[in-house]
Amino acid sequence: MRIAIRLVESDPFQLAGVALLVRLAIAAGRKGAAAVAAPKLVEAYVRRGDLPAATAAAVLADRAGADGKAARASIAKAFGQGSSRLADVSPAPPPLPSTPEANPALEALAGEDLLDRGEATLRDFVDATDPLAAGKVPSLPLFSQLAPKALERLLTALTVRDLDMNGVAIEQGSEGREAFVVVRGTLRAERAASADEGEPTLLAVLGPGAIFGEMALVSSAPRAAAVIAQEPTTLLVVARDALEAIAVDEPAIGRELGSYCRSRMLANLVRTSALLRAIPSADREGVIALFDTKSFGEGEVLFEEGSEPEGLYLVASGGVRVTTHDPAGGEDIVVADLGPGDVVGEISIVLRRPATATVSTAFPTIALELSRERFQEAIRRHPAVLTELYALATARQDELHSVVAQEALDVEDVVLL
After folding, report:
1. Sheet strands (E) in 250-400
2. In CATH, what number does 282-414 get?
């Protein structure tokens, strides 16, 4: 509290300090000043184009007994679709860090006297004039595609979660049922080391305003990576169950979320798929438009060994298992487990022969299907697609033969005839 007081007394619009004072006042049962300061804190964050921080401040308004609903309505009015304040601008930068002069009188305060000083500091913030005018705010992905009423409903589903340094927001391999927005702090997204690697693979560093984990709202696939706080961090959290309940009354939320997740999914595929990377960036959107999005439940079969697949599939979310039947042993052999960015069905469509293996989903999966007819169109426009798929098909066929041959050797090692 002493640190927060020093910050806010030196500059009333050191908003992180104000937010901390509000939280501490609520925790101490001093909700009066907090209830007055929290709505003004919401408006200050809105003026700076910071929707996540404004929403977290609206949660504080609820906790302080203020009108959090009105605060969320104000946020939605500013950032919602059709707002006259939306523009192609960046959020206002936070104030530069400052080191207020030491105040021996403040350092000597404790207990109720310190709480009184904290409340007085909050009242000074309320009385201060914001140096930033109520101007334009940035148009934000997902949020600004919703009308104010729908956006307000979405904001009601967001809760606040704090993580200490090295706190885990997402555990790799766990079932995802929540999505997150970073309010403050940074996190690292990393994939666990494989048997051949000694260290986890760093995928991204996520800072304020970043959205992550959103695929959990449309898919039950296990988390593909872990997300860990690099410093004390505050997150907004939305659970799938809460979102589904709201979407019943506000279908636009479901539609926009689906559209947003698909665009993020495709952007991720461009980074992870060798097939898409082989296509010039200016042409990728046209090629992707040739694919149809398909959703599969756990255990569904995309195509069976010996069949003629209707096309090839690019795994976007989830994962599939590739198996082949061993006539000698009478059992199925697992050839590979594949995930986002991987292609299946290419042997049949490129080499023009029946499927050499059965492909089924290991868990709920979203895949992009390129039909045989559209495949011909794709390779006419972009011959690099055929080159990439031919190399993949021949490599996969060799891998399949190698796995089956190794299974036969393993049987000979343990079976006496």
Report:
1. 292-296, 301-303, 311-326, 331-338, 343-344, 358-371
2. 2.60.120.10
